[in-house]
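Many groups now describe folds with learned vocabularies. In that spirit, our science desk offers one protein's residues alongside their backbone shape tokens.
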Amino acid sequence: MSSSYDDIAGMYHAFWADWYLPAALPALDRLFFSRVPADKRVLDVCCGSGHVTQELIRRGYPVTGVDASAGLIDIARGNLPGVDFRVQDVRHLQLEDRFDAALSTFDSLNHVLTLKDLGAVFCAVRSVLVSGGMFVFDMNLEEAYLMNLREWNATVQEGSVGLVRGTFDPDSKMAFTELIWFTKENNHSALWSRRQSVVEQRCYSQGEITVALAEAGFSRIEALTAQQAGMQADLAMGRIFFTAYS
């Protein structure tokens, strides 16, 4: 299994470690942490390199994290030894345990590129939840992608430079994020290595997502814009949080 994040996993972890979670915490406190007791088993869906997993562990939740990127899972395992991380396709989860709640953050499910596959993810998550288990996730709507201005944004850190540019096709509803990562070979070298990747996402309407959840068997489906949920940063623009129960 390969992922478009594998080649730039280190860039993802280093450059976005303190970006999403601080902005999203008010929403996660309201929608997830206040509703799920800390002794309940949680599945972190599309956990990436473990930024949100780390917060779940800090709050006392027993967690299993799954992601399609082996590169991101390697980083997560290195930073959170002893935590159960799995490299898995979230459309076809293979897990022995059942979970009281599931969480997917940072518009991870926008990486699922067809409505059929999104429905498969919802079915797979529901299949590993206990009866009445809660699923909370956020996704970007079209408004978020229309903010992409085709301009490069640079992030410079000691020994590395990251370049990111996003584009969006409103006809196909597809978004493309081009990432280029330069890293210095070592502190005493003038040589730099380059890695790059293009990450694809697709935006869905709120109605499409709600119908797909219902068809997967979820009920008590609630949708709140990120602003309504308490998120106030730029990342809130065009973002929507869903809560549903198995």
